[in-house]
Amino acid sequence: MITKVNPYGNISLTNDYFSGLVAEAAKNCYGIAAMGQTSATRAVRSALKNGSIPEKGVTVEEQGGRLAIRLHIMVGYGLNIASITQSITHRVKDEVEHATGLKVARVDVFVDDIISG
């Protein structure tokens, strides 16, 4: 949970909120075949490290008042991965900053699989 303080009080944003926001922003980008982590091992590691399983392959952490977003995706075969990840990075950053008013330090996109068909 990430809390933002403003003159009227505190606003707490849950991990579920961020997962949905980031997932929706990324799904609208060209080349995304699916989202989420492919490996059960990764999910277990994340659960042990963070105390919860990341929803939709998205984790968001606050670092020095800014957000660090990690996003796991699967892309379609034959597409330019560099273009896809750059598009996702810019879109997710813009959407999160616009929706929450919080600054994004970085967006790390991990391509876990390539899906053909």
Low-confidence stretches: none
How many strands, what sense, and barrel or not for the largest sheet?
Answer: 4 strands, mixed
- Beta-strand portion reads 35-45%
Number of H/I helices: 3
**Total beta strands:** 6
* Overall structural domain count: 1
* Corresponding CATH architecture: 2-Layer Sandwich
CATH 4th-level superfamily: Cation efflux protein, cytoplasmic domain
Write structural notes for this entry.
With 117 residues, the chain is an alpha+beta fold. It has a single domain, classed as 2-Layer Sandwich (Alpha-Beta Plaits), CATH 3.30.70.1350. The chain contains 3 helices and 6 strands, in the order E-E-H-E-H-E-E-H-E. Strands 3, 4, 5 and 6 form a 4-stranded mixed β-sheet that branches. A two-stranded antiparallel sheet has the order 1-2. Helix 1 packs across helix 3. The chain is elongated.
Tags for this model:
117 residues, alpha+beta, Alpha-Beta Plaits, four-stranded mixed sheet, two-stranded antiparallel ribbon, 3 helices, 6 strands, elongated
Question: Can you give me a brief rundown of this structure?
Answer:
It is built from three helices and six strands; from the N terminus they run E-E-H-E-H-E-E-H-E. The protein has helices at residues 15-27, 40-50, 81-100; strands spanning 2-6, 9-13, 32-35, 58-63, 66-76, 104-115. Helix 1 (15-27) packs across helix 3.
SSE map:
Blueprint lengths: L1 E5 L2 E5 L1 H13 L4 E4 L4 H11 L7 E6 L2 E11 L4 H20 L3 E12 L2
Parallel strand pairs: 5-6
Antiparallel strand pairs: 1-2, 3-5, 4-5
Helix pairs in contact: 1-3
